[in-house]
């Protein structure tokens, strides 16, 4: 499974403004396949395009907009902070950065934290921290074992850590990573050797199609790391900050990593990520991790607003309740349309289809005013706002049913055409 190859934009994807002018000659590098609509505003679970057409958004910027589009709490935090101080620079302290790291450590039981701008940066930082720890405690060991079909980001180190290593169009990759099948403890045992410094995993593999680790597996991985004295790194970029119905997915599994990567939902839609470390893993020193916008006060204010909201009494319980409602609705629909397996937790669900029609369904859904993503050719992913309502879910299911019907009809017509 190649997690990085997505189809190139096609001629269908001409960008037209409301006057019908073709904007596709714009100088944006065509690295991402996008539909032709241009989006101009959002509110909660809804987005509007430049023709003022409304779309129900069950992607939310790839699970980044944890509180939905433009929530009041984020608007207020960002505008208050923008008035006070946007960016003193990473070489100076700012109160927001200190507060957010404090709050994250307090609520996750971590000892140290650091703020960055993306999940890939958190991954880079986790790799650096593990290698530094290896230099100090494991006789210069630096190899990190990761799982097949895992995805940790698109920078060089993150690509190399991800499934199948670095995309072969960009060889050579960063050395020092081994990939073993996910949910396979014997394979992991066999792969660990004296050169191993850490095991890095997603509790639920997001890009692979929302594939959860089994509890037996993650507990076994934790035990293995403790026995061998190596680090456990959990990539909670997508699963963290309430997405799965707890602040961290590791809490639901009853395990404790040494290093945690956070991103996406932490900023509620602004670029913010975090690296958390516990106990022996806290070994970074001055000069070993820096970035111009790391700990940016404006971004940190967004993180604090999101974290405060997610930690409000009843919020996570509501995520679990909405998640069950969504899961049940999707299961009913999958049964009706003869689609396959449903996997997920909280408000992160993946539905495996009976064929490779996921891209066609995403396109048909867009036609029905519904935004979804397809991490795999046969899989749809649902990552709505954590604040999604039951009526939003009901409306989504109606639109998805219409999209399934559209695709079925097109498939039948196509088959008839071939038969003729
Ligand atoms: C589990 C996981 N880790 C890391 C990343 C990389 O995050 P970013 O795109 O913010 O660099 C992603 C992005 O999809 C992800 O799903």
UniProtKB/TrEMBL annotation:
GO MF terms held by the record: identical protein binding; pyridoxal phosphate binding; transaminase activity
Family annotation (PROSITE patterns): AA_TRANSFER_CLASS_3
Database matches in Pfam families: Aminotran_3 (PF00202)
Transmembrane stretches, start-end: none
UniProt KW keywords: Aminotransferase, Pyridoxal phosphate, Transferase
Cofactor(s) for this UniProt protein: pyridoxal 5'-phosphate
Highest taxon in the source lineage: Bacteria
CDD domains found in the cross-reference section: OAT_like
UniProt family annotation: Belongs to the class-III pyridoxal-phosphate-dependent aminotransferase family.
Name this polypeptide is given: Aspartate aminotransferase family protein
Highest classification ranks of the organism: Bacteria, Pseudomonadati, Pseudomonadota, Gammaproteobacteria, Pseudomonadales
């Amino acid at each position: 499974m190649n997690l990085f190859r997505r189809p190139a934009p096609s001629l269908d994807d001409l960008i037209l403004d409301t006057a019908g002018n073709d904007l596709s000659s714009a100088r944006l590098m065509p690295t991402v396949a996008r539909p032709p609509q241009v989006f101009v505003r959002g509110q909660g679970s809804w987005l509007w395009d430049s023709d003022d057409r409304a779309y129900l958004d069950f992607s939310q910027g790839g699970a980044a907009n944890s509180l939905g589009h433009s929530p009041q709490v984020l608007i207020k935090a960002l505008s208050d902070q923008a008035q006070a101080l946007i960016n003193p620079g990473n070489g100076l302290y700012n109160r927001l950065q200190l507060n957010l790291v404090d709050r994250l450590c307090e609520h996750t039981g971590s000892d140290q934290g650091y703020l960055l701008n993306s999940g890939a940066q958190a991954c880079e930082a986790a790799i650096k921290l593990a290698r530094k720890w290896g230099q100090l405690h494991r006789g210069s060991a630096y190899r990190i074992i990761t799982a097949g079909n895992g995805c940790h980001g698109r920078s060089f180190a993150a690509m190399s850590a991800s499934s199948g290593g670095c995309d072969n169009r960009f060889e050579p990759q960063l050395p020092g990573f081994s990939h073993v099948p996910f949910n396979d403890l014997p394979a992991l045992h066999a792969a660990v050797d004296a050169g191993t410094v850490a095991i890095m995993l997603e509790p639920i593999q997001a890009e692979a199609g929302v594939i959860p680790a089994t509890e037996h597996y993650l507990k076994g991985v934790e035990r293995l790391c403790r026995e061998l004295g190596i680090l456990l790194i959990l990539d909670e970029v997508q699963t963290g900050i309430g997405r799965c119905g707890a602040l961290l997915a590791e809490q639901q599994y009853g395990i404790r990593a040494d290093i945690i990567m956070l991103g996406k939902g932490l900023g509620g839609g602004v670029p913010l990520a975090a690296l958390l470390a516990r106990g022996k893993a806290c070994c970074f020193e001055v000069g070993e991790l820096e970035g111009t916008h790391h700990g940016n006060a404006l971004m940190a204010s967004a993180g604090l607003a999101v974290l405060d909201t997610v930690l409000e009494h009843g919020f996570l319980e509501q995520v679990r309740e909405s998640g069950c409602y969504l899961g049940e609705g999707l299961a009913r629909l999958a049964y009706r349309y003869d689609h396959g397996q449903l996997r997920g937790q909280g408000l992160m669900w993946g539905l495996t289809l009976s064929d490779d029609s996921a891209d066609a369904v995403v396109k048909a859904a867009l036609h029905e005013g519904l935004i979804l993503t397809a991490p795999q050719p046969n899989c749809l992913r649902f990552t709505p706002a954590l604040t999604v309502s039951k009526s939003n879910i009901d409306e989504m299911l109606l639109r998805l049913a219409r999209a399934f019907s559209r695709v079925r009809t097109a498939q039948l017509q196509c088959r008839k055409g071939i038969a003729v």
